[in-house]
Design goal:
Strand order of the largest sheet: 2-1-16-15-14-13-12
Structural class: alpha+beta
Pfam families: Beta-lactamase
Keywords: Membrane, Transmembrane, Transmembrane helix
Number of domains: 2
Radius of gyration: 27 Å
CATH superfamily of the largest domain: DD-peptidase/beta-lactamase superfamily
CATH architecture of the largest domain: 3-Layer(aba) Sandwich
Transmembrane segments: 12-34
Number of helices: 13
Largest sheet: 7 strands, antiparallel
Order of helices and strands: HHHEEEEEHHEHEHHEHEEHEHHEEEEEH
CATH topology of the largest domain: Beta-lactamase
InterPro entries: AmpC-like, Beta-lactam-related, Beta-lactam/transpept-like
CATH class of the largest domain: Alpha Beta
Shape: globular
Domain Beta-lactamase-related: 78-380
Helix content: 25-40%
Strand content: 15-25%
């Protein structure tokens, strides 16, 4: 019997399918290389929240990573500002925003002179009293939520403090209570023990008279903890680290162990870095809510931008606090002017200066780790800010 030899026929569609498959693979590779890499499809709620959180931010501020990058001066204005910083022997990191764009962001001098580690946009500086602005915002959140009134009196929370039946939350925020602290802690304690010690040492000077004293904000921290049922640090983390994603904002302990920390110095006889100022955990850790965190220039910018955009507190609540009586005065951790705000702090060699327009278009942030005792950095910051626009005192 003869069997016919079977020949395999070439299917004409196979080359076509191979070609199509190649195009699909090439297209997929291109998508993976150049398309945004979302780990999961965004839900409608997530999309709305993301869109809402970006409202009123400047183009550069929408991408927080921009604040980790150096921006050299290219425009004539930016070069003029850079020259002023150099002429004034500024040491630290400077961030300048004009018309909603970063025009200068760079470090000057050393973060650690002994290690020859220079200051950069990633450098962390203690912000001192500017933390009071972040604490005031947490209190104003409670006002917005209806859990507290600006005109409520202190005796609801601390009836044993002298004249607490007359002192209002508004007065504490503006330091018009007349209170002062009789004694400061001399031993290391827990945060709760520090607060108890501070509040127990609150005393009345002249009621209703402005007196810049941290006791007002220690009391506000205690009130916040009573209202929320959680520690100040937890409230702080929920609002600023988790919600606003200020990942370059560190507690004092974390600051001490960060590779991006700066060391504070004192100019001695005209010599920069003349004396290294030693770390002082007791000094900083007792400043709960008033001066115990470190930030980069970028994170500090993002705080004020979000504050003015209504992403932390709504405009109605801010306006109820920023009345005409607060103009050119300390109010809620900052100084309120007609079309801009100013914030300042000094602590153990560190000095932050912030000037920020209320329309969020212009900002100057100078963070230094060598505080000049002639206050020249405050004047320098205002001089630079005035170059950006017309701002009324």
């Amino acid at each position: 019997m003869h069997h016919k030899k079977q020949h395999k026929k070439n299917n004409p569609w196979i080359p076509a399918m191979v070609t199509i498959l190649l195009f699909v693979l090439i297209g997929l590779e291109g998508h993976l290389l150049f398309a945004p890499h979302d780990t999961a499809p965004a839900t409608k709620k997530e999309t709305l929240e993301t869109t809402q959180s970006a409202i009123d931010r400047t183009q550069d501020a929408q991408i927080a990573s921009n604040f980790n990058q150096e921006v050299q001066p290219t425009s004539d204005l930016a070069q003029q500002i850079n020259q002023q910083l150099e002429d004034n022997s500024f040491i630290g990191t400077a961030l300048v925003v004009h018309d909603g764009q970063i025009i200068l962001q760079k470090g000057f001098g050393y973060a650690n002179f002994a290690k020859k580690q220079v200051n950069t946009p990633q450098s962390l500086f203690q912000i001192g009293s500017i933390q009071k602005a972040l604490t005031a915002s947490l209190i104003l959140q409670q006002v917005q939520a209806g859990k507290l009134s600006l005109d409520e009196t202190l005796d609801r929370f601390y009836p044993t403090i002298q004249e607490s039946e007359k002192i209002t939350i508004r007065q504490l925020l503006s330091m018009n209570s007349g209170l002062y602290q009789k004694e400061k802690p001399s031993l290391m304690m827990s945060d709760e023990a520090f607060l108890q010690f501070d509040i127990a040492n609150a005393a009345m000077g002249t009621y209703g008279q402005f007196k810049y004293d941290a006791i007002n904000y220690y009391i506000l921290v205690g009130i916040l903890e009573q209202l929320t049922g959680m520690s100040y640090q937890k409230s702080f983390n929920q609002t600023y680290i988790q919600k606003l994603q200020l990942f370059h904002t560190l507690s004092y302990n974390d600051f001490l162990h960060s590779k991006d920390r700066t060391v504070a110095y004192e100019n001695v006889s005209g010599k920069d870095y003349g004396t290294e100022i030693a770390d002082k955990p007791l000094v900083f850790k007792q400043e709960i809510g008033t001066g115990s965190i470190a930030m980069t220039t970028g994170d500090l910018y993002l705080f004020f931008s979000n504050f003015l955009s209504g992403n932390i507190i709504d405009k109605e609540t801010v306006d109820s606090f920023w009345t005409s009586e607060t103009l050119r005065k300390f109010a809620g951790g900052m100084y309120n002017y007609k079309n801009y705000i100013r914030a300042h702090g000094i602590e153990e060699g560190f000095e932050p200066n912030v000037y920020f327009s209320k329309d969020k278009q212009d900002a100057v942030i100078l963070l230094t780790n060598q505080y000049p005792k002639n206050h020249s950095n405050t004047l320098l910051g205002k001089t630079i800010f005035d170059l950006l626009g017309s701002y009324e005192n």
